[in-house]
Amino acid sequence: MYTARLLSGAGSLFAASWEFEIDLTMAQFIEFIGNNLLLAGMWLATVAAIIFYNMRTASKSVGPAAAVMMINRRDAVVVDIREKKEFDTGHIVDSINIPMPKLSQRITELQKHKDKPIVVVCKLGQQSAEAVKLLQEAGHSEVVRMTGGLSEWKAQSMPLVQK
């Protein structure tokens, strides 16, 4: 492959030598895998386990624009799982504040909204997956988390209620 790609000119020579380096590196990689089958197999098993775990535990997420559409068209309920102090600095209109540490005790407050979609919001969109799982276990059929949390909501200049 190296000699077939070698063309006249300095730029072509550089391209050919770069391609040769890739081929040499790939050959070394294949040799490494051949010499370390057990290690390569464990690496593949680990990657497969991580992918499988993420697929099973990941919850459905929507962006702020999709959340607004769910609220307006389907009367979705917004559950803000931030602490009360953060909630008071700014929150989505008509959102219900149930801090994450208290969600399992206060989950009965959402029983009247079982037939409605629920959008879970946190500060950055990272803690809401756990809340989604709790709500789904409690029998709520359509629960989604908002990607990016309230930070993304603010970044898109969406309206907030401040006390």
Detailed description of the structure:
The protein is an alpha/beta fold. It folds into two domains: 2-57, no CATH class; 61-155, 3-Layer(aba) Sandwich (Oxidized Rhodanese, domain 1). Helices cover 55% and strands 10% of the residues. The chain contains eight helices and five strands; from the N terminus they run αααβαβαβαβαβα. The chain has helices at 2-5, 10-35, 37-57, 64-74, 84-89, 103-106, 128-137, 149-155, and strands spanning 61-62, 77-80, 96-97, 118-121, 143-146. A five-stranded parallel β-sheet has the order 1-5-4-2-3. Helix 7 (128-137) links the parallel strand 4 (118-121) and strand 5. It is elongated. The model is unreliable at 1-6 (pLDDT under 50).
Keywords:
single chain, 8 helices, five-stranded parallel β-sheet, Oxidized Rhodanese, domain 1
- Alpha carbon gap, first and last residue: 69 Å
Mean pLDDT equals 86
Strands of the widest sheet, in order across it, are 1-5-4-2-3
User: What's the structural domain tally?
Assistant: 2
Structural class: alpha/beta
Describe the secondary-structure layout.
Blueprint: H1 2-5, H2 10-35, H3 37-57, E1 61-62, H4 64-74, E2 77-80, H5 84-89, E3 96-97, H6 103-106, E4 118-121, H7 128-137, E5 143-146, H8 149-155
Parallel strand pairs: 1-5, 2-3, 2-4, 4-5
Entry summary:
This protein is an alpha/beta fold and 163 residues long.
